[in-house]
Design a protein that fits this description.
The structure holds 2 protein chains of 2 kinds. Chain A is of the alpha+beta class. Chain A is built from 2 helices and 4 strands. Chain A has a two-stranded antiparallel ribbon. The longest helix of chain A has 10 residues. Chain B contains 17 helices and 12 strands. Chain B is about 45% helix and about 10% strand. The chains are: A alpha+beta, B alpha+beta.
């Protein structure tokens, strides 16, 4: 799985950082998401899929292998 | 044609009004000014449209389906804010106010929020029975949290909490509520100036620094401070009180939550399900089309208003099977209780922490909590943007 993040769309709601904290964080000054791990291991996939699904700005796209 | 907003039924006050559940995927409703905007209730349709750049939140455009006559009259005079601008302007504005609401910043508040709730429960347990949970816990939790986050000095707590409660309580006369709102706005303006001279570690000081740096005007900072207070206050208070009523009405679910109070994942999911089940914002979120949009064989024309009822999406059986059942274990995170799209609630992470601590603590500390009046006699307040309770008489 590869995580693609469309930063200009991000509204910094932070749900990704809450649901999948090993893969997403928020930038300190404005809360915009940061991808910590663009190719997360299989044990993280469920969380990453949920984070992508609930992202209010649809800014997270997953390319599944 | 059905009138909107619609009234909930007294017999099942938590579910959407029956009229909403009977609407077609793309319907129309009549609103206060006689206009007939489109009405979209499906979960998948809301997800697609609330991220669609062909819909705008610019309430200054003619034909925008305003919520009330007052909002329509005020719209032309409201400066550009996160609540009335589209991307990319919206994105820029939201990034200037988002810092204090980030997940990691909000998590730092969790121990303080726990202290606040524990101390309010101590006070309630030491007082007479029955008690009104709205006054004892529901209203003071968000007030105390916001007081600390904004950085209101200790000597002003009495004024600030009194005025905030009067401004939002359903038990206050409208003129008194409006006067309290004005007093709070004036107070926040003065406090912002003080924080610019002597900054501390709080949100008003942070906004003061942005005003000094020319990133924000004084008026914008005061408007934002008031918005933080108002938006986060009534909604959180309603969720704490209504959530408790819903759980007391479903004793099996209450027992399940009480028994799993020490499991943060269980409690977090229970919060999402209660947000879905209650969907307290019941006046719809509103947009205007800026291009033609085809939807299920219907054409929404450029210039048409569109209203999205959030409870419709949260009770869409395609997304949430058997939606009328409160099930704290169901996957519920895809709910639209905070809206959806770029304008989804700015304070959602703070609301989640407040509710997780409130629901995770209240029933564990008071395992015998019970209604002090029959369910049918609990007075609901249905007239606001969000519904709530006038009082919740409880005993233990």
């Amino acid at each position: 799985m590869r995580v693609e993040f469309d930063e200009p769309r991000c509204v910094a709601a932070g749900q990704c950082a809450m649901i999948a904290p090993d893969v997403f964080d928020q930038r300190d000054d404005d809360g915009v998401a940061i991808v910590l791990d663009a190719e997360p291991g299989p044990d993280l996939h469920d969380g990453v899929r949920e984070a992508a699904a609930v992202c209010p700005a649809a800014a997270i796209r997953l390319v599944e292998a | 044609m059905p009138y909107y907003p619609m009234e909930r039924e007294a017999r099942c006050p938590f579910a959407p009004a029956a009229g909403i559940r009977e609407m077609p995927p793309v319907g129309t409703v009549r609103i206060w000014d006689g206009s007939t905007p489109w009405f979209v209730t499906g979960h998948a349709d809301q997800r697609a449209l609330l991220n669609d750049p062909r819909l705008s939140i610019d309430e200054k455009k003619p034909g925008y389906p305003h919520m009330t006559k007052g909002r329509a009259a005020a719209a032309p005079h409201i400066p550009n804010l996160i609540t009335n601008t589209d991307p990319p302007e919206h994105t820029r504005l939201r990034r200037t106010v988002n810092g204090p609401f980030m997940v990691k910043r909000v998590e730092q508040w969790r121990p303080r929020i726990q202290q606040i709730i524990d101390s309010l429960i101590d006070d309630m347990l030491a007082g007479p029975k029955p008690a009104d949970l709205v006054q004892a816990i529901g209203l003071p939790v968000p007030t105390l949290v916001i007081t600390r986050i904004l950085g209101v000095p200790y000597e002003d707590h009495g004024f600030f909490q009194g005025a905030s409660s009067r401004a939002i309580s359903h038990d206050t006369e409208p003129e008194v509520a409006a006067e309290s709102g004005r007093a709070l706005g004036a107070y926040l303006g003065d406090l912002l100036v003080k924080k610019m001279d002597a900054p501390a570690d709080d949100v008003l000081s942070e906004m003061g620094a942005r005003v000094k740096a020319g990133e924000m005007s004084h008026a914008e900072a005061v408007t934002m401070g008031s918005a933080i207070l108002i938006a986060g206050h009534e909604t959180s208070a309603s969720m704490i009180s209504l959530g408790t009523l819903a759980l007391l009405h479903e004793p099996d679910q209450l027992a399940l939550l009480r028994d799993n109070s020490d499991d943060p994942k269980f409690v977090a999911n229970a919060v999402e399900e209660l947000l879905r089940y209650l969907t307290i914002v019941h006046t719809g979120i509103r947009r205007i089309a800026v291009e033609d949009i085809e939807l299920h064989g219907t054409t929404i024309r450029s210039g048409d208003g569109v209203v999205f009822d959030l409870s419709g999406a949260n009770y869409d059986p395609a997304e949430f099977p058997d939606p009328g059942r409160l099930d704290l274990t169901r996957p519920a995170r895809s709910h639209h209780a905070f809206g959806y799209g770029a304008h989804q609630c700015l304070g959602q992470s703070l609301a989640r922490v407040e509710l997780q601590v409130a629901y995770g603590t209240l029933y564990r500390r008071i395992p015998t909590l019970a209604l002090a009046v029959p369910f049918e006699e609990v007075p609901f307040a249905m007239e606001g943007v969000a519904y709530g309770l006038r009082s919740l008489p409880v005993t233990w």
